[in-house]
Amino acid sequence: MPDDAQLLRQVGRGDETAFRELVDRHARYLYGIAYSLTQNAADAEDVVQETFVGVLKSKFREESSVRTWLVQILVRQAALLRRTRSRKITQTTLDEPSGGLGKAVEGSAVGGSDAKLDLAVMLEKLSPEHRQVIVLREIEGMTYDEIARALNVPRGTIESRLFRARAELRERFKGYLQRG
Questions:
Q1: Which structural domains are found in the chain, ordered by start?
Q2: Quick one: 142 exposed, middle or buried, by C-beta within 10 A (0-12, 13-18, 19+)?
Q3: Three-state DSSP class for residue 5
């Protein structure tokens, strides 16, 4: 069975079977990250699809693991979606008084778990940069170096963002555990 780098070389030569295998190996993992970043199932699916389109358009330089490279593409696609949406939202701000929060909460509750609902709400309160590092580090378990490569920023920036994101979560949700 070929490893991910071998699959990418085969994909580069037009091997559709190798592409399907790459998608099968990584789509579920990427969807989890995309959903955490977008807080919307349809958007997460779009971001994952665009990530795999990006695979076809990009060249893997083997500077990181294939998974880290895929996450890097995914994060760029999620940021592109967010920028596109923010332009649309500023044009139609008055049309949606809830600012989209209700949809994220509603979509998260489908799983039936209060913890998922609370996590989704907490993540939505963070800035996109803080949400990215929290999701990649705390939920996906990526190392600081992997996150730095995926986001194309220095490791120190990752450490700083993670520190600030954790502090923001502690401040915003202090007393949360005592409520239970």
A1: 1-91 (1.10.1740.10)
A2: buried
A3: helix
